[in-house]
Amino acid sequence: MNSHSSPATADDARAPEPARSVRASGRLTHWRTLDLVTCAFLGVAFGVAYWGWGLAYAVPSNAVSAGFPPLGALFNWPWLVAGIVGALIIRRPGAAVFTELLAAVVSALIGTQWGITTLVSGLVQGIGVELGFAVFGYQLFRWAPLLLGGFLGGALEAVYEWYSYWTDWDLGYKLVYLLLLGGSVAVFGSLLALGLTRALVTAGALSAFPPGQEARERSAV
């Protein structure tokens, strides 16, 4: 055996760094004008989309819930995507609530069958999503807070609907509805939010935000 083995280079010795979440720059409570404008843009865009989904969802929702009413929850998760996208992009406290509530306001102004109660849903949903990221101190923006925030947003909306729409259901129906709504938001809502965020990164629209920085760091490796 050769006793004079070649020394390891710095590149060989350096272990690969795990993927990390890029946090918002500066104080978390310090919102830039760009953050506010972007949240407003997202809220308006999602508000129009929410209004459109309100026109389309009834047929498939009624079809699956005819035999088992709680199954209608499986078609309600799109109404929480705005808050998740807002949190993923802005990464400051309040981004999920701001984006989700503004989307609800816009859809209500256009006209929905739920009227002013749409704003209550938007607030409740946004708070739930916000809590998922707050638990991690707004330091992590990967699957753990996405799943938790999505589930909490759906769960809080389900509880609100128990006392607003589903007052005649027994506890079993209500709990199944909560689990289905929370679970579908956590999985499908998170996947759609991630897909939309990555599409915006690819288009170069988020270069001034943490997701854009993450993409630059990955491409530099």
**Count of distinct strands:** 0
State the low-pLDDT regions, or none: 1-18
* Overall morphology: globular
Note the beta-strand portion.
under 5%
In the CATH hierarchy, the architecture is Orthogonal Bundle
Name the helix and strand elements from N-terminus to C-terminus, one letter apiece: HHHHHHHHH
CATH class value:
Mainly Alpha
Q: What is the makeup of the main sheet?
A: none
Secondary-structure class: mainly alpha
Mean pLDDT across the residues is 89
Helix content: 55-70%
Q: Please, how many domains?
A: 1
Please count the helical segments. Answer: 9
Rg from alpha-carbon coordinates: 21 Å
Q: How is this structure best described in words?
A:
By secondary structure, the chain is mostly helical. The protein has a single domain, classed as Arp2/3 complex 21 kDa subunit ARPC3 (Orthogonal Bundle). About 65% of the residues lie in helices and about 0% in strands. The chain contains 9 helices and no strands. Helix 2 packs antiparallel against helix 4 and helix 4 packs across helix 5. The radius of gyration is 21 Å and the shape is globular. About 40% of the residues are buried.
